[in-house]
Amino acid sequence: MSKDTVTSGIQFREPSGRVIPWHALDEKTLLRKLQTRLDGLTPEEAAERLREFGRNELPERKPPTLLQVLLHQFASPLIYILLIAGVIALFMQDYKDAFFIFAVVLVNAVIGTAQEWQAEQSAHALQTMIKVKARVRRAGHQLWIESEEVVPGDVLLLESGDRVPADMRLLQVNNLTLDEAFLTGESQGVVKRAEPIPAEVPISERVNMAYAGSIVLTGRGLGVVVATGAYTEVGKIARVIKEEEGAKAPLIIRMERFARQISLIVLGFAGLLGVVSFSRGEPLNEVFILVVALAVSAIPEGLPVAMTVALSLATRRMAKRHVIVRKLAAVESLGSCTLIASDKTGTLTVNQQTVKEIVLPEGTEIVISGQGYNDEGEASLKTHEPLSEALVARLRAMAVDATLCNEATFVREEGRWKYSGDSMDVALLALAAKLGLSNQEVRREHPKLAEIPFESEKRYSAVLYATPSGRRLVVKGAVETVLGFCEHARSPDGEQPLAAEALAELAVRKAKEGYRVLALAGKDLSPGEAPTLSEADLQGMVFEALLCFIDPLRPEAKEAVETAHRAGVKVVMITGDHPATALAIARELGIAESQEEVITGQELDEIGTPEVPEFYETIRHKTVFARVTPEQKLQIVDGFIRLGEFVAVNGDGVNDAPALKKANIGVAMGSGTDIAKDTATIIITDDNFASIVAGIEEGRYAYANVRKVTLLLISTGLAELVLLGTAILLNLPLPLVAVQILWLNMVTNGIQDVALAFEGGEPGVMKQKPRDPKEGIFNRKMIELVLISGLTMALGCFVAWIWLIRQDVDIETKRALLLTLLVLMQFYHVLNCRSEEESAFRVPWRRNPVLAIGMVVALGLHILATEVPLLQSLLRLPSIPLMQWLLMGVLASIVLWVVEIYKAVQRRRAARV
Hints:
eight-stranded mixed sheet; 31 helices; about 15% strand
């Protein structure tokens, strides 16, 4: 549909190249450009256009195959290094080494594949947004067709409950309101009209357009299709999602950087030592064996598996807290985020309009407790005093009026409230239920005699209904409109002169507080008057009350925002709603305090392109973004990312999807649209903003555990590398052979590093500021711990090796004793790694009972390796006497005491600061 003119004669662009603004055209011009008529297309024309434009379907994105998911697990530099080491081992016929290396790579791939394959969402779910039946007019006849067969130029008819199958320009409306929250973020139904509007009006204010995927709340309408499939507003978003490149998770960035660094070090050092050995006349095959041994000692083979286990465990913990993770690497992303960009409607609020205050003409303010579409709540004075019987009777009478001047339904079935219609009307029926009234009984007892349906131009609705004593006329609508019909106001002492100006000012003040305000008025008529109704009959009404509505906060949202702030995470609100409503909600949540922190989409447009510095400087100081389009939301998220924030975006609508894709971590609500869930990397199943904060906590735990495992493996790898390198440079016998190093890294140490990944979270993690997103996994503390512990183990083992060389025993016994010393050192060092700050003696075992079992198993396996003949033969290990075990155990504890001293010094420094 991007063509200027197509074979059907439809024009989609003006001569200047600009897309035709369908909302700005009059009916005659619209029909001419679309080459159609109000009687509809003929069957032949429709068939030709279906061939020309294609079916009304959204762009499909095929889900990855199982093979693609499996291959994705190998897309890591660290895996490449391991595979190269395995190939070298195979080339040198060191099959034991090769077997261990390839087994590690395979286990890592299987775990990652299972996790991603099970969690992968199909993009086909988006098709349900428009796969519906459509009622069209063709050749003067009405018929139902599949929505996929709708074509540009079709005349569609809409009525309450329908889902709009394609983008339409409305030509006829009768009390038509649509739910467009999924696209615009607007929590209230949008009242539609048919007249042309200015071309520059944004999507959220194009009231003569109906967009694919929106739902008809009330009334009827007729319009002409202007876009189908990929060219609808929903389709444009789907294309953006398909094309937009997502930001990498922080853990992936850090691990890729680490893998590149360690690969260069290993290759350089191994190559240097290989050259040294070859220059000394060592045979080439022995030099290859040496390089393999060095690679095995330096590359942390267990890190991919341990990291995968740590992240998999975190996904299970998160699932228990209503957070579903689609990709393993995204687990700690929430823990890394410095900013949450949250949708408002349905995320921070319940997405159910609720009558919270009723203001009577004499100034009495009544508050209504409870929230949402149910009967839970009661009325009381704002001063917390109970209501008098007279005031209760007055409230119930107003509730009867509001129930009858109402087109919604609200019924309790099978223990649940079911509703349909305009959100404000449903809220009024819920108010009646809270006051003990059944809307079904009220409607049976007071039959309607006549009514004036709500129309956006008139901004009111009215009803004439029968009462036991006669008839009653009720009007409900915009405050200024209803005030124009009134001459008096209800009061406890009867009817009083109307203070219209004061009531109008009060309504404005309530609107600034974030309320949507409706007015209610009525008057009793004598039984003899005819049941006809026109606007002329509405004069002389008695003003009853101002009804103040709001989409309430989720009960746990405020506390969750406070927790995020304590954790150093900034929270901003991005919504399509009115700025006054957004600010009121933001103030209540603690997201914003003043109007200076609010900016609208129109104000962002006035700044100009997002590339100008003013754009970034502006959004840096804002926390509420109101009336923004999906494109602007994407620009805002991209802007925060460029400002150095690690952004978590949460949302539930189609309008959120591009930003979810762009963000470092996209968080979808479980009850949201399928496109949002399919785009996000994390899904909150209970729609609870507090679950996002729980995800941040679990993400921080996960990253801490990855650091603990990394500390263990890198420090022990450093110890082995320094030990072997020093021995080679000093022309000493190799302290360990390759298969023994593999045994050490994969069996004994490998069991303990996986068990360490089960470590529970340390207290106080949510009182710490987020990590600097630019900080690598090896910050100063990690480097210090690795060097201190690694060099302590290396020095201790080297001194022991010098002593063993001088002993009159065979080389295999010497290597067996040194291997045992290293096993025991790593046994103690696991305790060091349980916390980077706490003493090993203060970390409770209940935090990780799996580690206790893992340590016993690892030590038990090594004892078996020195006693079972088969393992002795494979690993070249003789039996070790008990006294030598005890001696090695005492010597190995040096690493525990050295790290304990380091931690104590660091704690004292921190206390002084």
